[in-house]
Amino acid sequence: MDSLTQIVLGASVAEAVAGKKFGNKLTQLKIGKYALVKEKHLLQTQSFFERHGAKTIVIARFVPIVRTFAPFTAGIASMPYKIFVKYNIIGGITWVLGLTLLGYYFGNLPFVRQHFETVIFGIIGLSLLPMIIAIVKEKWLKK
After folding, report:
1. Strand, helix or coil for residue 64
2. Radius of gyration of the chain (CA)
3. pTM of structure
4. Could you give the C-alpha distances from 89 to 16, 59, 86, 108, in angstroms and in order?
């Protein structure tokens, strides 16, 4: 099985089975008197996926950690499966082709070959930057 098929199938299972079947049960779990997921946050997530779900699934492919949880979150937010699968396939193809082409074109540059580890850490840093900015903004706006 090729990597694109694995990506699409893995995300589909996460969305359909884990997210839709077990997600709502997990959101109702409590640790002591504290809810694992607040009802307010669940409603915000559902509203977000209604407005931005399709592009979120595509963009999530390019953000480490987020790509792991996006399908599960889409399932909890009750994103229609047809829409999820369509944009999951688009995101998977874009991700695989994009990274393959980037690797092909940039992998042979002398600078990249000589500073490979630095380039990798730079890519990781850049991919985490949107999430870090969002967290900082949220913390800063609360003050």
Report:
1. coil
2. 18
3. 0.64
4. 15, 12, 5, 29
Residue 89 burial (CB count, 10 A): 17
- Both tokens of residue 48? 């977000």
In this structure, what token pair is assigned to residue 28?
């109702």
Phi, then psi, of 134 in degrees rounded to 5 = -65, -40
Q: Residue 136 is encoded by which pair of tokens?
A: 């900082």
Pick the closest to residue 127 from 53, 68, 87, 50 (CA basis).
Answer: 68
Encoding tokens for residue 44?
């915000």
**Is residue 108 classed as helix, strand or coil in its secondary structure?**
coil
Closest CA to 15 of 83, 69, 70, 72: 72
pLDDT tens per residue across span 64-93: 777 777 887 888 787 888 888 889 889 888
